[in-house]
Design brief:
By secondary structure, the protein is of the alpha+beta class. It is built from 17 helices and 6 strands. Helix content is 64%, strand content 6%.
Length: 466
């Protein structure tokens, strides 16, 4: 039981088993996982971590070493912060040459792809809660306007809608912060570069539409509010510029000249090459997302929802978050990623319901139903995966079948997400005018997962794994 756990001791054991504070580059968390970026993952004792009471599993993916704690996450993360002075996303070392001491791996196509995914997902992760908060506030404002039409013209609406849109409009700045934290560079330099794309001096030039140059070089005028990729490119360039200037500028002048040179050189390259390149790439991705949603939506959602249980176990589901965010920016809706995430969670809950219906003990039935509630209402699936469905094997078939069936329904009916939200049934309003389509897909996902699990899963007399 969670109540018997000593979270202070548990946090000490976890830090020790990942190689100690000196092996931790950064630490953060999502809803159920304690996420470490380690200097050398070979120093972590994975077997001992998996054997710890209260640990549901350990996953290494996308450059992150993740310890799955479920409902034990908040107190353990708090204990880690207090005992080791590690705040969320904070690098334990600001050494810009950290790659000289970190574990080096051979460069392959796979390692390069994983490095890119790790960089992008880690850059986006810190702002996800803000995007969700803003998205849900937009939903609340929308619901109020349905009751009072004149509310949309009030000062209250204008002020609160500004709060709701802030995280989206200033996305480049928040992305730059997360990217700099991932790289171990100075965040404020990257944030300044990203903010310059939103400054009135630049946006006024964009609005005017007249050709401009920077030091004689042509500047491609584009709007970068709510953009993702330009900030990622700027931060990466700023990281290498900061390293370069730290090496060539004498120590006595570093505090004066490193920052100056870093932001100046970065933004000369940024305005001329990097930001436009990121903007064009984002537009091409928007075409791909539009194609997936408009032509092969049912298949795309079904396949992704069916695969998500395994992606979650590998920790690779976070690699999809940047694409989800980009889709909400351009073309302005997500017809594939978030719908699949929600339907997967519903299917996990449905499979737990199927297990509960087969259970012959009140204890197992109660546990399975409680975890099902957590999947459907709270959007937390790890306890279902590791505690109920995976140990029994056949419920995983139910999860995949439920997710796929719900995905087909969502695609055929045209379910689309318009604002960021969590993958829970309570977030259905994020589908806005397609909410009925989403609700139908949710019902199908839960029902199919429960039915398939009930048929395939033999009667259980044992307690679910803890």
């Amino acid at each position: 039981m969670a109540e018997s756990l000593n979270y202070q001791q548990m946090s000490k054991d976890i830090v020790r088993l990942v190689g100690g504070v000196e092996n931790i580059q950064s630490v953060s968390h999502c809803m159920t996982r304690l996420r470490f970026v380690l200097k050398a993952e070979s120093k972590a004792d994975t077997a001992s971590l998996k054997a710890m009471k209260g640990v549901l599993g350990v996953v290494s993916a996308g450059g992150q070493y993740m310890i799955i704690l479920g409902k034990n996450l908040p107190p353990v993360f708090e204990a880690v912060q207090k005992q080791f002075n590690l705040s969320e996303g904070q690098n334990t070392s600001e050494n810009l040459d950290a790659d000289l001491v970190a574990e080096k791996k051979p460069l392959t196509v796979k390692s390069a792809a994983l490095a890119v995914l790790g960089y992008v997902s880690s850059s986006v992760s810190p702002m996800i809660t803000g995007l969700v908060a803003g998205g849900m506030l937009k939903v609340v404002l929308l619901l109020i306007t349905l009751v009072r039409a004149d509310f949309s013209s009030s000062a209250t609406y204008l002020l609160l809608s500004g709060v709701a849109d802030a995280c989206f409009y200033f996305m480049p700045i928040f992305v730059a912060y997360g990217a700099a934290k991932k790289l171990g560079s100075t965040p404020i330099y990257a944030m300044i570069c990203a903010a310059s794309l939103l400054h009135g001096n630049y946006t006024s030039l964009v609005a005017a539409g007249e050709p401009v140059t920077l030091l004689g070089l042509p500047v491609r005028l584009m709007s970068y509010s709510s953009s993702l990729l330009p900030a990622l490119l700027l931060t990466l360039f700023a990281y290498y510029m900061e390293r370069l200037f730290n090496k060539i500028i004498p120590g006595i002048f570093k505090s004066l000249l490193v920052g100056l040179c870093t932001i100046t050189v970065t933004m000369i390259a940024g305005f001329v090459v990097l930001a436009p390149a990121g903007g064009y790439l984002g537009n091409y991705l928007a075409v791909v997302f539009g194609f997936l949603g408009d032509t092969v939506g049912p298949i795309a959602i079904a396949v992704l929802a069916a695969c998500l249980p395994w992606l979650v176990m590998c920790g690779m589901h976070m690699a999809l978050v940047p694409f989800m965010t980009q889709a909400l920016t351009n073309p302005g809706y997500d017809a594939v990623f978030r719908p699949a995430f929600i339907l997967h969670n519903m299917a996990e809950g449905g499979a737990c319901i199927g297990v509960a219906l087969r259970a012959k003990t009140a204890e197992l039935r109660s546990e399975a139903l409680g975890i099902a509630f957590g999947c459907i209402v709270a959007g937390v699936t790890e306890p279902a995966i590791y505690g109920i469905n995976l140990p029994r094997k056949s419920p995983m078939i139910g999860v995949m079948a439920g997710g796929a069936a719900g995905g087909v329904v969502a695609g055929l009916l045209g379910a689309r997400v318009y604002v960021m939200g969590y993958s829970t049934i309570l977030a259905l309003p994020i589908f806005q005018q397609t909410i009925l389509a989403a609700a139908a897909a949710v019902v199908v996902a839960i029902a199919v997962a429960a039915a398939v699990t009930f048929i395939l899963n033999p009667e259980q007399n044992t307690k679910a794994s803890s």
